[in-house]
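[C-ALPHA CELLS]
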Amino acid sequence: MSADTFPGLTCREVASLIGKVSTGMEYPDEPSMLAAAARAALSSAVEPGDTDAALLVRSLGPLPTLRAVIGDTSPQSVRVALSDAGSPALPPIDRLRDALDRWRGRLPRAPLHAPLERAARIGARLLTPEHPAWPTALDSLELGAPLTLWVRGDPARLARLSRSIALVGARAATGYGEHVALESAAGLSDRGFAIVSGGAYGVDAAAHRAALSSGQVTVAFLAGGVDRLYPAGNDDLLQRIARTGLLLAELPPGSTPTRWRFLMRNRLIAAAGNATVVVEAGARSGSLNTAGHAAQLGRPLGAVPGPITSPASAGCHRLIREYGATCVTGPDEMAELAEPLGAHLGVEESGGAA
C-alpha cells in the first residue's frame, strides 16, 4: 500500500484513529481499518437508505468510492469503473452526476476523519461490515443496508441481536398500549430475548424500560447521532441503555434527527429483530412503517389487538386484516412468532435457568 492511502492520513494514522473507536472490538487487519475509515467519512455525506452510494461501495469498495466523491471524478468515469467491476447495475449518467453532486455538497468542511475524532471524544465505537462483529441480519437490506453503525455500549452485546424481537408502537400510547408493552417486553426478556426498539416515547420507551428492569439487553436505534439523544424527555432512559444495552445509529456523531431519518431508521429495527411486533398503533402511526419494512424483508410480523372502539389500535387491526400480520396477545405468542420451533425452550437453550 502507499504511504497515504486514506486522503490526508498515513496508514499508521488511520490505524491510530480506528483503534480509538474500536476498543474491545479491534479490526482484524489494515485493509479493514482503511475501509472502515472510508465508510466513516462517507457516512457524513450519504443519507440513510441511499442505494446509489451502497452500489458504489459494494462494487468499487469504500476507499475508491470516497476518492471518487472527493475528487473530480466524472460520472462517466464512475460508470466505466462500475462496468469494469462487474456491477449488477449501471445507473444512468444523469443519476450518477446528481448523486456525486449530492454527496460532494454534504461532505464536512472539517477533515474527512472528523467523525472518527468526534466518536473517540464521546467514547463511541465504529462498526462496519468489514468487522467480524457486524450484525449480519442487516445485510438482508441489500443495497439498503447501512454503510456504518456507530455504537454506544459494550460491543459484545451485539451478539444478543441473534435472538431478539422488535417491539414498536405509537408514541402517544394509551395506558393499555404501555401496559402491554411493559408486560410483553418483561416476558420476552425472561425468555432470553433482547428487545429492539427506537427509543421514542410511548410503546418504545415502555419496552426499553421493562427490558432494563429485567436485566436483559435492549437496543435502541437512533435517527441521529449516538450523541444526539432524542427525544430529550427520554435522555435518562437512553443514557441507561448506553450503559447496559446498546445505542446504535448509522449516521455519525453530531447528526441531527429528521423526519426522513426516522422513517429510514425503522428499516434497521425491522432488520435487526427476528420478528417485529406492533403493540399499539393508530391509522397513521410511524410504527406501521416499521411493519412495512419487516413484511418486505420477509420477517415474521405480529400485531396486538386492542378494543375495536379505540382509534389507537386501528393500525394494528388493519395489519391483521389486510397485511397478514399474526394476531399476538402475549409473550408466549410473540416468542413463538420469532422462534416457531421450540420457542418455549429458549431460556434453557441459552444457558439460563429453566
